[in-house]
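Appendix B, example 12.
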Amino acid sequence: MPHRLPPFGGSLRICAIRGRLLADLLPVADIADLLAAVRSRRELPREGLTRSGIEYTVHGAGCRMVNSDGREIDVDLVTDPVLGREVEAFDAWRIRWFLDEAADDSYNHEDIVEACIDLAREGHLREVVEGRWFALPDAPGARPE
C-alpha cells in the first residue's frame, strides 16, 4: 500500500508563499534571482520581511520562507539532470518541518521519502535526485544559463 502524507495542500501553499514573496520583491524573478540579488548584486539583505508579511532567509543553496501564520517553506536550488539546470527542490527533512507545523503525526524520514516517491510516480511531484530531492511537477527553477 502506498505511503500517504496527510492532505496539507503543500503544493498550493508552496506556490502561494513563494508567489507572494516574489511579488513583493519585484523585479526578482525566482529563488535563484533572489540568491543573486542578495549575494552578488547586494541589492537585498540576507534576511527580510516583505510587505505582505513573508519572512525570508537566504541560506546555503536556497531560501527559507515563512508566512505571517508561521507556515515555513524551505527550498534549495538543485541541479536537475533531466532539465540540465537548477530547480527549486525540497527533501524529506524540509517536508518533515512542514508536516510538523501542519499536524502532530508519526511520519518518519523513510515514510516521507516513500510517500514522495509514490507521489512522483503519480505525477504529483518530480523526483529530481532519486530518493533525495523532489520538486513540484512544474518546478520553478533558475533561468537557463
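Strands lie at 47-49, 55-59, 62-66, 72-80, 85-89, 126-129, 133-135. The longest helix spans residues 10-24.
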